[in-house]
Amino acid sequence: MNLATITKILSEQLSEYAAVLVAGAPRMAAALLILVFTGLIVMLARYVIGRIGRKAGMRTNMMGVLRMLAAVGFWIIGFLVALTVLFPSITPDKALATLGLGSVAVGFAFKDTFENFLAGALILFREPFAIGDYVECQEVEGQVEDITIRDSYIRQTDGQLVVMPNHDLFDNPVTVRTDRDLRRTTIMCGVGYGENVDEARAVIQAAVENVDTVRSDVKDVQVFANGFGDSSIDFEVTWWTGSKPLDIRTSRDQVVAAVKNALDQAGIEIPFPYRTLTFSEPVAVVAATGAEKEAAE
Fold first, then answer.
1. Alpha carbons within 13 A on the beta-carbon side of 215
2. Domain covering 182-265: architecture
3. In terms of Cα–Cα distance, which of 229, 145, 218 is closest to 193?
4. Angle, vertex CA 270, rays to CA 266 and CA 272, nearest 5
């Protein structure tokens, strides 16, 4: 095969390609216009969702999810329409069938990702907790710093950051410790068996009510004789304070100090454990000599 033959074959192929392109140019232009129009619709949808969301006080992340869903939906429709225009042999039902099979395959491949995505969308929609809340879930406790469509960022009280998949937060019980501004806390306090129970209760209650972090103006301080301990009558002391972990620790510190000082000033004993030893046989007691005392010391 000489050079002239090769040149002739290439020219014929290029001519066929050019003819196909010229014949398909209107369809390609129409498909391009459809994609451009789809892009404009997506921009308009994102703007409308943002405007409505801000007026409704919707979370920024939730608006982002709705914008993303709207964009994906419109782009899928636009691509399908452009595809049927560009290739007339591809009917809408064939395109939808192909899209359905592809969606099933992608769904199996990214099962966990889609679970977290749906859980994140439901969490953002239902708003069981907000950014800044202190939560506890599966032995993870801390402050929510961010909620994304896939996972949530929780800063523990020791400063460590835990990234939790939204699927875990959606399927497991979550304790929202700062759902309200106040939270109840409790300590146990013991007094000696020789003390008057009513007097001790009154002293403890007055001491707790005078602590600044105790919200006795909102909720009553409660002091109950709880039981008979090994060396003391045990009181359960309950009060309300701020709901943040630091509020709880600070209030407990102040209440313990106030109760200790009040009991000391009232002369009420806070006992330490006593031990009584019982022997089955008499025990001989022998006085130690001076040398034995020095050796023992």
1. 13
2. 2-Layer Sandwich (3.30)
3. 229
4. 160
44-57 residue pLDDT tens: 888 888 888 788 77
Q: Is the dihedral of CA 238, 244, 248, 251 positive or negative?
A: negative
Q: How confident is the model at residue 90 (pLDDT cuts 50, 70, 90)?
A: low
CA 103 – CA 93 distance, rounded (Å): 15
Longest C-alpha distance within the chain, in Å? 131
- Encode pLDDT of 199-217 as tens digits: 999 999 999 999 999 998 8
Distances (CA, A) of 36 to 41, 173, 249: 9, 46, 59
According to CATH, the topology of domain 16-109 is: Helix Hairpins (1.10.287)
Question: Quick one: CATH architecture of 124-176?
Answer: Roll (2.30)
- pLDDT bin (cut points 50, 70, 90) of residue 235 is very high
Please give the Cα distance from 204 to 268 (Å, whole number): 10
How is the beta sheet containing 175-176 ordered, strand by strand? 161-165, 151-156, 140-147, 134-137, 175-176
